[in-house]
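Dear support,

I submitted the protein below through the web form. The confirmation email said the job was done, but the results page showed an empty box. After a refresh the structure appeared. I'm attaching both so you can tell me whether what I see now is the final result or a partial one.
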Amino acid sequence: VIPLAILHFEDPVLVAACIFLLEMCGFSPTMLRVDIAVLQRISSFYKSKDYNEHQFTTKGSTFLVTPANGDCTVSLARTLADEYLHYNGLKQKAPIDHHPSHTLMAVLQHLEKASLPVMVDGPTCGSWLLSGMGDGADLRARQKAASHHWSLVTRFCQMHHLPISTRYLSMLAKDNDW
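What the results page shows now:
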């Protein structure tokens, strides 16, 4: 059921039916919901007009190369579904003390890319802390929204027993925004 929902993450009716079936069988659908939200965010990011602008701001990073059309989400969904088949869905989880799977790390890298605030022009949200320039209330509100947006990355890491991503903290640290 889980791989089926993941492969069809853009079909809300099928995903809802799979979640309902999991609940009826006594399994928690929380991890599936997180994975679906992750794939949807990655997909919408690569389909957005901001993607072309954002890809230049992450030059030199360790992000995976994406296909020419930009949307690699279908491939990520396929490999994530295979990951669930390999570990037998919810019953048998990957050992916590092993190295994270390449699949989960690839999904995490794309999720980080899709979740970091896009700073095309102008100051970062925390830059006013250093310079005192700009509307602090507006920038703080945008920072709060960005932090809320980032919470999916943290949740994905927790659900899959991955080390919590520090990319957002690194971005905040550049502005001394603690």
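Response: this is the final, complete result; the empty box was a page-load delay. DSSP finds nine helices and no strands in the chain.
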